[in-house]
Amino acid sequence: MDNLNLTTLQRGQTMVNDVAIDAFAAGFRGSLLTSKDMDYNEARAIWNAMIDRRPGLIARCAGAADVVRAVRFARDNNLLVSVRGGGHGIAGNAVCEGGIVIDLSAMKSVRVDPQTKRARIEPGATLADVDKETLAFGLVLPTGINSTTGIAGLTLGGGFGWLTRKFGLTLDNLLSVDVVTADGELVKASETERPDLFWALRGGGGNFGVVTSFEFKLNPLNPEVLAGLVVHPFADAEKVLREYRQALEAAPDELTCWVVMRQAPPLPFLPAEWHGKEILVLAMCYCGDIAAGEKAAARLRAIGNPIADVVGPVPFTGWQQAFDPLLTPGARNYWKSQDFASLSDAAIDVLLNAVRKLPGPECEIFIGHVGGAAGRVPTEATAFPQRSSHFVMNVHARWRETGMDGSCIDWARELFEATKPHSVGTAYINFMPEDETDRVESAYGANYSRLAEIKRRYDPNNLFRMNQNVKPTAAVRAA
Asked: Which pLDDT tens digit goes with each residue over 157-167?
């Protein structure tokens, strides 16, 4: 088999000879796509429309054996590798230029065992797929807030959302994984089998292999929760944020409340005169007894003079999809993120000043309220480092026209720099764009050196580098 040098790769084409590709295809149960195939452009498109890459080969895997075969093919031919689950990652690492995409999106099985309260989930499943199966049995896995997100990238990077304070991060509920390592072997990792690899996979992203199956513990949940939005005029935002901060000091783990600041979309419950104007939204969810939730949320709902309050009992599956219409694929997206231990007055001033300069109608700032159960896990217990942060800021620049690239990206970067003095220094890697590779080491903090050593043992040649990359120890020392 001819050895492919990365410098010979052509845009949208792979230079591996036909004999090698035919041999690969002969034992492949899924489908292989090149730029000549009708489905190629659809297969290479991902959620963030800023990413426009043309891989040489897209290997749509039907199962773990296909993944093994694809990894070995990539390794033997020195191909650049990207791994696609849901294709939702902001950095766009699900697709590469010129190399091979190991596409897991067809591997969507979700199998629930209600007796053991466990689920076996394949990496192509979305959060909607997971919720549909688990909640049918009155069980839930804590995940994110957008139902089209893929379970694989979410879990490997952390995973937080409405249930995090009660049940921990998604990765805190992970029991084991089946993973194809860089040497093309399918292995199991858990607390008792390859515990070092299992530690790294819980927060280390896609650096250590291709996960073909996740085993999770599930948690009991009433299918109906108390959830909804309280919408405030932006003119009241400073007062609302300060009272919001105080109200959360005594919040039970069952209660989560996030802040969104943006121009008002044309929501049916908002008066038309507010559409397009700056607003502050408190988005809350109580995952317990509804009557207890009403009491727990009362202080938050009593803040200020809201334009609308649409908090009430709703099916959790519906609440999980409430933000989907605002996060559809096809828009250009650029994010910046910070972790905060608290929302200081100075930080609030910076945030409010940025909202006054929103560069477009879909741009927003949201503050995720975390802590609770997730914050009681020791920092060193998993690769995920930011256990002490109580709030996660995501500066979400989102727009449609390429002519807005400069203004939207500059706005996000300026706010990121302005909030640095108020942050704890770590970062949520799932919120980091492709140009933040220099931030990876600081994002992991004290856990980085251990991650780099595990990377050296499992992927010394850095085959899996289309990610927020942890370089193998040897490479770190040589730099």
From this structure: 999 999 999 99
The answer to whether the CB of 148 falls within 8 A of the CB of 109 is: no
CA distance readout (Å), 65 to 60, 62, 94, 103: 12, 8, 20, 13
The pLDDT of residue 21: 86
Task: Summarize pLDDT for 375-411 with one digit per residue, the tens.
Answer: 999 999 999 988 987 899 999 999 999 999 999 999 9
List, in order, residues 6 or more apart from 118 with CB less than 8 Å away.
112, 175, 215, 216, 217, 218
Tokens linked to 246:
């105080």
Sign of CA dihedral 5, 11, 12, 17: negative
Residue whose structure tokens are 């009681």: 376
Structure tokens at 238: 């400073």
